[in-house]
Amino acid sequence: MLMAQFIMLLLQDSEMYIKYLCLFLIALSLSSCVNREESERCYKHLSGVEVGIPEDASFFRLVYASDSLIIAHSFSNKNKLTAYCLSDDGCTEENFLMVGKGPLEVLDAFAKYKSDSLYVMSFTPMGVSAFITIPLKNYCDVSAWKVQEAEQRMLAGADFAPTGNGEYVIVGGEYDTETVLTKYNSSDGLYSNVTFWPDDGFEGGNIVKQLIYVRSSYVSVVDQKILYVAGEGKLATIIDVGKQPVDIREIYSDYPQYAPSEDGMNPRRNPKSGLGAYSFATEEYIYLSPLLCHLNGINYEPSDYKGYPPYFTDEIDVFDWDGCYKCTYVLDQPLCNYYVNEEEQVIYALSCDKNTLTSAVRKYELPKME
Known about the structure:
This protein is mainly beta. Helices cover 12% and strands 48% of the residues. The protein has 3 helices and 29 strands.
């Protein structure tokens, strides 16, 4: 009876009726995204082919990959980046972004590719030092590099994302504050906090929580939307800073399990807490690969994944930028990092030789999205 009276009231007030109908449809749309992820898993099995890189190659993160060029973060203590130029005649190797304190050298750095350029964030244990823009076609010509000093004392993680319009989103923030993500504007040289502080119920000090959510985390940016993927637990969040208030939508919502250590400054992980997910994002889709292992002290549990190191996986969940699940790719060989070339419609997956643990790259043709 009360429901009937409520409906009659809405019908009498057409403006109120339209408002509530819109809210209902939005809620239904969001619900369908979540329900599809949980109950309608769509698996697509992909078979790859080996990319011809040197047998002794050793690197840990793909920065850019195409059918003619692969750029990756090197394990070397002399240089941060290595380029592998691929052709019918074989593969040539070039090292660049050298380690040091001289001009155009870095102590530590991470790189991202966007719009025909490599963007490098140079940092130290004290915080961010500078941003370097390197044209992809002239990556070894240091005279073509552009450096912007941007010193900022902060707790900096190991990832950042260029927006392409002179701004950067950095994993990290001012020490001991409710900050996980920070934005840097190169036009005015100013840093600002991104409104995001995970609501995980933790009641300890800011620095403990900040450390958990900054270390080993990933970030990507498309337009006004930021993808944050925690390095602990199984948490992936889309943050739409173009809306006021900021709209936050979780793709995965398993928060890290942790508590303060005895010193009250560092976090103590629960051994059963997840270890995050590998991630990549294009203009259209989000790619996520949750790790299935746990870390008990210094030991991984289980100790391997299908004969590969335990932090490898062979599944990639795909979502759109509204957080709606699309499908799951199952690869024929486990991976520990990947790069999606949107133009080629190819996934380049970083794997390894099971016996020598040297790096290997496989390429997978992307099937058409339904």
